[in-house]
């Protein structure tokens, strides 16, 4: 069975994609810390409840047509979230230098470490879920 068919793994993949993209955006902010007029950016927050609802809507049971007199089942399937589907938003302006740059390296490092902690937690959850699947697939007595 393909793990992308399991909603938990699909949501974890989306979360990991979001966190990877967020780390990329924060790294761009750090790289442009000396660029005149540069404003820091961040990604729109990943909301677990929204992702859960979209997964549930995409998993609605589809009736099968067992007789020609039955109405055909089906419906519109929701597309998955790709890595480019995250919205970049301008960060809060905390302090601006004379050249117009508003990147605060301390804030960016805090955001980077938060993203790293969340990424590590998601990877740990993914590994535990895979271990449970392996355990469930083993024959009894092993």
Task: Note the main sheet.
Answer: 2 strands, antiparallel
Number of helices: 3
Which percent range describes the beta-strand content? under 5%
* General shape: elongated
Q: Look at the helices and sheets and give the structural class.
A: mainly alpha
Percent of residues in helical segments?
40-55%
- Would you report the number of β strands? 2
> Taking strands numbered 1, 2, ... along the chain, how are they ordered across the largest sheet?
1-2
Mean pLDDT across all residues, rounded? 79
Q: Could you give the order of the helices and strands?
A: HEHEH
- List low-confidence stretches: 75-83
Topology:
Blueprint: H1 7-31, E1 41-43, H2 48-58, E2 88-90, H3 105-137
Antiparallel strand pairs: 1-2
Helix pairs in contact: 1-3
């Amino acid at each position: 069975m393909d793990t992308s068919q399991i909603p938990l793994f699909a949501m974890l993949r989306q979360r990991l994609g979001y966190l990877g993209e967020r780390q990329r955006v924060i790294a761009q902010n750090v790289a442009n810390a000396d660029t005149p007029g540069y404003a820091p950016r961040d990604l729109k927050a990943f909301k677990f409840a929204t992702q859960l609802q979209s997964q549930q809507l995409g998993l609605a049971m589809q009736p099968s047509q067992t007789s020609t007199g039955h109405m055909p089942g089906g419906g519109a399937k929701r597309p998955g979230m790709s890595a480019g589907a995250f919205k970049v938003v301008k960060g809060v302006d905390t302090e601006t230098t004379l050249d117009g740059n508003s990147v605060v390296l301390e804030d960016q490092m805090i955001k980077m470490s938060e993203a790293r902690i969340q990424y590590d937690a998601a990877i740990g959850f993914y590994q535990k879920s895979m271990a449970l699947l392996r355990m469930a697939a083993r024959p009894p007595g092993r």
